[in-house]
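Supplementary Data S3. Sequence and structure tokens for construct A.
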Amino acid sequence: MVEKFKTILNSIETERGNVAIFALLRMDEFVDKWTVVISAPWATDENRHEVFEMIRKKIVDTLTSAEASEIARIAIFPIDEHLIQELLQFKSDTVVENKKINGNDIHSAYIIKSETPALV
């Protein structure tokens, strides 16, 4: 599924521009599903719904229905959000397991892309 999310990321960046963080996090103890986390300079409060719908559509179009059912939420954060700042400490293509990040217990995570804001 990670490879399919790399394809989704490439499509997003082709259409909209660079992304600072694109990651899959499994952190909910009660719902064993993934959260898609994205932060990009062009994803703002003003267009959050549009960005959400774009990502949702790409997920539905790219993943099988079984894979898509593994996604619990799409989280769009500004670059200055504490969680994003902590995720930026990890390099792209990093797997994180059983780590506390921003007060959240991350059971597993795939940091698909991590690029410091100065480079975005």
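Construct B, processed identically:
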Amino acid sequence: MNNLALIFGPLVWISFFAALVLAWYFYLKARNKERMALIEKGVDVSEFYTKSDLKFRFPWLKIGIIVTGISIGFALGLFIIADPKFQFEGGPVILATSFFFGGISIIIAYFVDKPQRKRQNGRTLH
């Protein structure tokens, strides 16, 4: 049984990456055929090569707020179960406080990011 895992494990990974490469190749091939057909019909294809005005920014602030909220909830859960006057089981208390503070931090992150979304070109982006 162990020999099969040694054979099929790398084979699965190689197949996965081969599928990714082939999918990317056929995507580029189809896109090229479409553009060539548009060029043959006389359509201006310069709009395909222009940069878009919408720029993606990774939401570091939101992620930071959410991770901070979850870690505060985790730490508070640890403090609650460490206190001898509370007779709680450890797992559910830590999980509940982590989810509670994580949810609060998601709400805070939404309201912190709201003015930034409105400033982008005068329209709200989601």
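The helical segments are 2-41, 60-82, 90-119. The first helix runs from residue 2 to 41.
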